[in-house]
Automatic annotation (TrEMBL):
It is found in: Cell membrane. It is a multi-pass membrane protein. This is ABC transporter permease. It comes from Enteroscipio rubneri. It comes from the Bacteria. The chain crosses the membrane at residues 12-36, 48-73, 93-115, 149-168, 189-210, 222-247, 268-297, 317-338, 359-385, 397-423. It holds the Pfam family FtsX. Coiled coil: none annotated. One of its GO terms (cellular component) is plasma membrane. The keyword Ribosomal protein does not apply. InterPro entries: ABC3_permease_C (IPR003838). Keywords: Cell membrane, Membrane, Transmembrane, Transmembrane helix.
Length: 441
């Protein structure tokens, strides 16, 4: 079994490189959090900064890791079907898949922490340049905490890909060879349990804020956008698909072939669509939610004649550096990992008589569908957290609502998605459809 694990990783390195890149990014951010805690041990002024980085990055890390692991398993279904045809037992297939996820996660996390060890000291003055007191601290790389980061990344990969691994082992081989993706049947028990726990935590946080003094509300207000986005991430398979169905139905597909193709492609591959949209949703939700809360406090302080400086460069990097990096990597990787199936789908449409300009327009429309869907769902989290904080301090609802900074995240995500959809489409247009369709594993 061990030989099968590593031989398959070698033969399908192009498929696994996406999950590897995500693990590298998570290891890098986790290494920063660990090193900041190590530095705080000798410099009391930096206490809790590592915890803040970890808290804000963990939501994005879990969402991106789970999406990447599930998408990788889904992209490999044809290989697993061939194993089943070769009389490999379902249990062994599932064990091999889980072992591959752990190997890729650990290797990626190791590379990420090594990159962090090489860059933490040189980048430390740049990150904390806006805080003179913090910039004087002596940075220390936390080598002792690196194995913990590796295990954490591997654990999330393992849990996130568990359902996909069971599906790979239990799906009938001929069905897997015939269908590009299994039909999704609601949410897993783990997602439901996490949703219940996070909803309870969110309700408890709101309970503490309502009727409390303004300083207590401020202490808890930054946690509310994180919890709101985490709750949405748990139900993302349902929320994203419902939002996509709702707003795309407003544009008649019968009047424009490109829109019809893009909408059908996004709706058919719901697993791939959710994996692509989740990083953008998390990025927009965190950035827009935090800046909206900051807007509430800016308006509150202005109303009471108090001074409020907002976020400086250092604070913005601490809060958003990790989540934005992880979401950008996750969005790009998710679509690149589906490029092979996208190339074959384009060749099928060409063989069916679709015009090249229609397919290019359809690729652009699909990227737009993903970006808009993720933005609309994430906007709900930002609206909810903003309304709660504003109400808790007696300000009008939607006070200080700030979507501009979050839209920058959505714009970057759209550009990445556009490039990742257009490149395989244009590649397929330059090749003979029969050759593309004839290429096997």
């Amino acid at each position: 079994m061990i030989k099968l694990v590593f031989c398959d990783l070698r033969d399908h390195a192009a498929t696994w490189v996406g999950a590897f890149c995500v693990a590298v990014a998570c290891g890098y951010v986790g290494g920063w959090a660990a090193s900041l805690e190590e530095t705080a041990a000798t410099f009391s002024g930096m206490r809790y900064i590592g915890s803040v980085v970890l808290a804000f990055s963990s939501v994005a890390a879990v969402a991106v890791l789970v999406s990447a692991s599930n998408l990788t398993v889904s992209a490999q279904r044809r290989s697993y079907a061939l194993w089943r045809l070769a009389n490999v037992s379902p249990r062994r297939v599932s064990c091999v898949v889980l072992a591959q996820l752990v190997v890729v996660a650990v290797l990626g996390a190791i590379v990420g922490t090594l990159l962090e060890a090489a860059t933490f000291v040189p980048l430390f003055p740049m990150v904390f340049g806006a805080k003179e007191a913090l910039a004087q601290a002596t940075p220390h790389v936390s080598f002792s905490m690196m194995p913990t980061v590796w295990l954490a990344v591997a654990g999330v990969f393992f849990c996130g890909g568990f359902k996909g691994a069971r599906s790979a082992g239990n799906t009938p081989p001929l069905m897997a060879l015939r269908e590009s993706e299994p039909k999704r049947r609601g949410m897993t028990c783990l997602r439901i349990a996490l949703f219940a726990v996070l909803t309870a935590c969110t309700g408890w946080t709101v309970f503490l804020m309502v009727g409390a003094a303004p300083d207590v509300v401020m202490n808890w207000s930054l946690y509310l956008p994180i919890l709101a986005v985490a709750v949405l991430a748990c139900i993302s398979p349902l929320a994203l698909s419902a939002a996509m169905d709702a707003w795309t139905s407003l544009v008649p597909g019968t009047r424009w072939n490109a829109w019809f193709v893009a909408r059908r492609t996004a709706r058919y591959g719901l697993g791939s669509s959710t994996s692509v949209q989740t990083p953008v949703m998390v990025g927009f939700g965190l950035v827009a939610g935090i800046f909206s809360v900051m807007g509430v406090w800016a308006d509150y302080n202005a109303l009471h004649g108090l001074r409020f400086t907002g976020l400086d460069w250092t604070e913005a990097l601490i809060l958003f550096g990790g989540p934005v990096l992880l979401c950008a990597v996750g969005a790009a990787v998710s679509v690149v990992m589906t490029s092979k199936s996208r190339t074959r789908d384009t060749a099928l449409l060409i063989a069916a008589g679709a015009r090249p300009e229609t397919l290019v327009a359809a690729a652009a429309c699909e990227a737009l569908i993903h970006a808009v869907t993720a933005t609309l769902v994430a906007a709900l989290a930002a609206l909810a957290s903003n309304a709660v904080v504003a109400s808790a301090v007696g300000m009008p609802l939607l006070t200080g609502l700030a979507f501009g900074e979050g839209l920058l995240v959505s714009l970057v995500g759209f550009v990445l998605l556009l490039a990742a959809t257009l490149i395989p489409t244009c590649s397929a247009l330059r090749r003979e459809p029969a050759r593309v369709l004839a290429v096997g594993e």
